[in-house]
Amino acid sequence: MAISLSLRRAFAAALPALALAFSATASADTVLRTVPSSDLKILDPIWTTANITRNHGFMIYDTLFGMDEKGAIKPQMVDKYTTSPDNKVWTFTLRPGLKFHDGAPVTSQDVIASLARWAKRDTLGQKMYEAMDSITAEGPNAFRMTFKQPFGVVLDALGKPNPLVPFIMPRRVAETPADKQIEEMIGSGPFTLAKADFRPGDRVIYRKNAAYVPRKEAPSGLAGGKVVNLDRVEWVLLRDPQTQVNALLNGEVDMLETVPSSGYTDMRTNQKIELVDVMPAGPFTVIYNHKVAPFNNPKARKAAMLAINQEAMLRAQATFRDFYKPCASIYLCGSVYASDKTGFFTGKPQFEEARKLLKESGYDGKPVVILLPGDAPALNKLPAIYGQLLKQVGFNVDVQTTDWATLVTRRTKKDLPENGGWNAFITFWGGVDASSPITYSPLTGNGDQGYFGWPVDPELEKLKKRFIETADI
User: Fold this and answer.
1) What are the percentages of helix, strand and coil residues in the chain, rounded to 5?
2) With 87 labelled, which of 114, 246, 365, 403 sits at a CA distance of 20 to 30 A?
3) Degrees (nearest 5) of the Cα angle 241, 247, 251?
C-alpha cells in the first residue's frame, strides 16, 4: 500500500566546486564527486529494482528509447521505427556507430537477447512478451516485433525510466539466466566501469567513454544527446548523514543525491549551496510479504494498513513540512490517475478496527520482522515509527536493522523470517514510476512473477491487461 506524498527529493550542489571542475585546464581531469543515496553493491540492473543500481545502469548502459523532461518517449539507440496500420508489427533500426565498451558493435541480436532477459523479470516486460508473437532480427542493425494483438505501450515499455529499465547489453552477457547476476560490466553508454574502480563501501569511479557518440538533439531528461563533459564521476559512499553534510560544506564532494533533514537548515542558508528539485514527488510504499504469516492473511494485512499514520511517519522521516504532503491516493498525488477513492484506507490510523481485524485473523503473536535500512537516510526513520504503530494494534514487532544492499538481497527470499526471510519493508518510488498501473511495480497480482511480496490477485492483472489493450497508440 502506498503512503503517497509530495516529497521534494533534492540534490545539493556546491557551486564553487562544480565551477572549478569545469574550468580545469585541458591536461587535468574534470571530476564530479557525488554522494549517492545508498551503497552500490548489486551491479546488475535487471536483477534488482533498487534505484541505486538503476542509476548505475544509466551510467554505463544505453537504452533504445528515453523519456524526455516532459514525459515523452523519444528514440535513443534507435534511429528510426515504423508500425503497421493495425499496430501489430513494429520495426526498429539502430542508429549507426553504436559500440560496446570492448569495441564490439551493437547488433540486433544483442538487443533481442537483452530484451528477453529483461522481460523475464519486469512486470511490464512480461505483459509485452505475453502479447508478442515474435521478435526477430532484420539484419545486423534492425529488429521486428510482431504482436498477436495491438500492444499500445510498446514505446513506454522500451523507454521507461523506472526499474527495471531495459538496458542493452552484449548478447553473451544478456544470455545470463535472469535469476543469476551478470558478471561483466560491458555496456555502450557514456561511461565505463572497471572492476578496479568498483570499491563497495568506499567509492565507485566511472570514466568517460571516449568512443560514445551522442545523439545530435539537445539533451532533455533521459533523451537527446548525452554529451559527456567530465572525465570522471566518483560516487563517494558516506553512510552517516552528518558526515555527508560536512563533506559538502567542506568542499570534499560536489553533490548529495538526497539532502539529510538534519542538514537542511544549514544548507538552505549557505550561499555556497544550492538546493535543486530534480525529480517529481514520489511515494513511500509499505511492502507486505504475502507468502508467510501473518500477512498471508488478508485481515492481518488490512489491520496493518489501518495502523498507518501518514502524518506521523512522514514527519519523522522528512522533518520539515515543506518536504511532504500526506494523501491517500494509490498513485502519485496530483498525477493523472490520482484519486482519493481508496476504500477503507485514509492514511489516518484506525486502531479499533485494526485490532478487531487482527483478532479475527487468528494472529498467534509471532514476531513480525520489519527490515530497516540503517544506511539509507531517506528511508531509515519510517520502519521504526511504523513498528510502534503496529504494536498499538497488537502485533509483536521485530524491527531488524541492516544496510540497504543487504535488504535488497534479503527481500528476494521467500523463507520464513526466522530463516532469513521477512514480513515487511518500506521503499520509495519516483513520481514517474508511481503515476501509472503499468510502471508502478508494487501494483502486481501475478504471484511469484511479480514484485517482492508476491501478491496473487487475478482481477488486478485482468484490469492491467485491459488498460494496456486500450491504451492510446
Assistant:
1) 30, 20, 50
2) 114
3) 150
Contact 199, 235 (CB under 8 A): no
Using left for φ > 0, alpha for ψ between -120 and 50, and beta otherwise, residue 224 falls in left
Q: E strands, 141-218, where? A: 142-147, 191-192, 198-199, 203-208
pLDDT at 28: 65
Q: What would the pLDDT profile of 380-403 be if each residue is shown by its tens digit?
A: 999 999 999 999 999 999 999 999
d(CA 421, CA 404): 15
Whether 137 contacts 143, CB under 8 Å: yes
Helices (H) and strands (E) in the chain, counts: 14, 19
Check: CB of residue 170 under 8 Å from CB of residue 152.
no
Question: Pairing relation of β-strands 78-83 and 424-428?
Answer: unpaired
Q: Is the pLDDT of residue 128 over 70?
A: yes
Residue 79 in 3-state DSSP? strand
Can you tell me the distance from the alpha carbon of 122 to that of 172, in angstroms, rounded to the nearest whole number?
Answer: 20
DSSP 471: S
At 142-163, the pLDDT tens digits run 999 999 988 889 999 999 998 9
Asked whether 182 and 173 are in contact (CB, 8 A), the reply is yes
Q: How far is CA 366 from the centre of its chain?
A: 32
- Count the Cβ atoms, other than its own, within 10 Å of residue 265: 11
Here the cell at position 182 is 551478470
- The 3-state DSSP class for residue 64 equals coil
**The three grid cell numbers given for residue 12, joined into one nine-digit string:** 545539493
Q: Determine the pLDDT at residue 471.
A: 63
DSSP 255-274: EESS--GGGHHHHHT-TTEE
User: By three-state DSSP, how is residue 408 classified?
Assistant: helix
Per the CB < 8 A criterion, the answer to whether 390 and 355 are in contact is: no
Query: Is residue 257 a contact partner of residue 11, using CB atoms and an 8 Å limit?
Result: yes
Q: Nearest Cα to 163, choosing from 374, 428, 456?
A: 428
